[in-house]
Amino acid sequence: MSTEDGKRSGRPKGAVTEENIKKIHKMIFGDRKFKLNEIADTLKISLECVYHIFHEYLGMRKLCAKWVLREVTFDQKQ
């Protein structure tokens, strides 16, 4: 009996790619008031993938209808 996970059938995650991360980064820094569903529709990926990219790869969160970095310096707050 093995304790390691074996390969599972199913669709591999293909939406979280460097290309999509760069596109989302460019879209957000162009206009920080984008909605998640607008980005998902534009890139033709799921809403969950967009949310995952924001939090895990870009380190951003929603604050007062704008996407901002989680950790901002004093100069960035000004």
Automatic annotation (TrEMBL):
This is Uncharacterized protein.
